[in-house]
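Can't paste images in this forum, so I'm doing it all in text. The chain is below; anyone willing to post the predicted structure tokens underneath?
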Amino acid sequence: MNPRARWAVMAALAFCAFGLSKVAPAKMGSAKVFVTNSLGTTITRIDLATMKADAEITVGKRVHGVCAQADGQKLFATIESEKMLKVVDTATNQVTATIALTGRPNQCASTPDGHYVAVPIRDVGGVDIIDIPQGKIVKVLPVNAPHNAYNTGRNDVLYVSSMDDHQINRIDLKKMEYTDKIPVGGIPRPYAVTRDEKTLYVALSDYHGFEIVNISTKKEIARVDLPAAPPADCILEPHTETHGIALSGDEKELWVTSLSDNGVYVYDVASKKLSKEIATGECPNWIGFSPDGKYVAVSNCAGNTTTIIEAKSREVVATVKTGEGPKRLLTMVVPGA
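Text version of the structure:
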């Protein structure tokens, strides 16, 4: 290759590299927090780059649960007033599909590929399993007083809690049936399951703390009391002292909300020690980590705000106004946002 041709090739490669460096951030997207406003009709979207609300997504009256597929392209919201699951295109923030449910829904969970979504149905006593590509319910499994659904990162497994039976049920999506039922020491509220499905962390009604359960032996490992506090007085979450649990990405920490004293505690899994309280807004409800683990978001159901905490320093970096009665939330990267 002569010098002039070699120079032309190098210049072309440099131009392409410059172009790729300019467009890569847009393709990667940005981290957002989606907060359901249970006493309104919208989901508030918060941009973690600016720490400000940048969108209000209208989905329907008494929006309750929110979940999403791993690529961030679709968001799923449960609407109590309409008894519907709504699919939101995160590129446009518009509802693109509405799927009828068997009754009044609670918190949903999606498989990472977005193929299946599980929705507990409070007034019917079952969990609807929706095939999203088909746009319909493909299975209804019986559950006594279902509450929350959960996914550990697998496309073939989901979980649903039974408040009346005091247990967490494991759903095998290949068989479309229960393959395990894990007893807990009271009425289960929010919970988290480790990725290896060996350990369960669960909040219980009228208990200011959480229980740790060995899933294999179905035995309680420990109960962790949060510091003493007056009984919670949060009208949106009666008989609940602790209503938010989230594992860090490395599963070394468990972050837990306290409605009783308006704050968050961090439990170190290895040392079994609790941090000091991190103050949030009034009646902290749900909690979730940003995908990179840098931030923790907490919805404050009585304060109509969401608190953003820097995970490493455990310092509050923002308090963002939401709609009325914020409950469930999730954080994810929205492509191209």
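The chain has one helix and 29 strands. Residues 1-27 have pLDDT under 50 and may be disordered.
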